[in-house]
């Protein structure tokens, strides 16, 4: 089932999320719906707050990046089958050189900006079978994880921009929160801003 994606301005996107237990109600169904929602919106990652749930869960399918001809064959191979579920994730380390990449977000349609992030991360999480993992990632895989991880911490990529960039985006972001935006997928806009 395709879920509506929560738009910028909704308080759920700013909440620090709660851990979930193995017996979380219909977890498999939620994960399946999140993948369907993400694919429908042509995204490469989706976090539970983006579908209105303040829980520590995000999904990633970075395989579209595998077709990027600017990447090395090794990077393309790593991303080709990079489809993962992250439950109760904690980034343990972020290191390496910072590099910029043009990021966007399904909750902030039609806004893309260069964001600087460190190259390498070490992350601890549970997969969809609730098996605990500790893994290291670098490059684009690390970047997509960092972006989605920010969501479960109540952080948006726009928070990482300079003061000037934020001021330049202010009216665009305001319009998104008011529902004055066109997206090719189903969205949910903040109730308080609907002018009831």
Question: Which fold does the CATH topology refer to?
Answer: Peptide Deformylase
Q: What would you give as the CATH superfamily?
A: Peptide deformylase
Order of helices and strands: EHEEHEEEHHE
Task: Work out the strand percent.
Answer: 25-35%
- Unreliable spans are 192-196
The total count of helices amounts to 4
CATH class: Alpha Beta
Indicate the overall shape: globular
Kindly give the count of domains: 1
Structural class: alpha+beta
- Gap between N and C termini, in Å? 28 Å
Largest sheet: 5 strands, antiparallel
Number of strands: 7
Please characterize this protein's 3D structure.
By secondary structure, this protein is an alpha+beta fold. The chain has one domain (5-194): Peptide deformylase (Peptide Deformylase, Alpha-Beta Complex), CATH 3.90.45.10. The protein is built from 4 helices and 7 strands. It has helices at residues 27-40, 73-80, 139-152, 163-177, and strands at residues 5-6, 45-47, 57-61, 83-105, 108-126, 132-138, 187-188. The strands form 2 sheets. The chain has a 5-stranded antiparallel beta sheet, sandwiched between helices. Strands 1-7 form a two-stranded parallel sheet. β5 (108-126) and β6 (132-138) form a beta hairpin.
């Amino acid at each position: 089932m395709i879920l509506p994606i929560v738009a910028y301005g909704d308080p759920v996107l700013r909440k620090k999320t709660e851990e979930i237990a193995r017996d979380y109600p219909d977890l498999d169904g939620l994960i399946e719906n999140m993948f369907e929602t993400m694919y429908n919106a042509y995204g490469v990652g989706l976090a539970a707050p983006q579908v209105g749930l303040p829980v520590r869960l995000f999904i990633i399918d970075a395989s579209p990046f595998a077709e990027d001809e600017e990447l090395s064959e090794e990077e393309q191979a790593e991303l080709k089958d990079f489809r993962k579920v992250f439950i109760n994730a904690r980034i343990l380390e972020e290191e390496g050189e910072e590099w910029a990449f043009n990021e966007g977000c399904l909750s902030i349609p039609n806004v893309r900006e260069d964001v600087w992030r460190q190259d390498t991360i070490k992350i601890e999480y549970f997969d969809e079978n609730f098996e605990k993992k500790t893994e290291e990632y670098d490059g684009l895989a690390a970047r997509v994880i960092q972006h989605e991880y920010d969501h479960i911490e109540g952080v948006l990529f726009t928070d990482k921009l300079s003061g000037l960039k934020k001021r330049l985006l202010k009216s665009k972001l305001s319009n998104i929160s008011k529902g004055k935006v066109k997206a090719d997928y189903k969205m949910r806009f903040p109730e308080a801003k609907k002018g009831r």
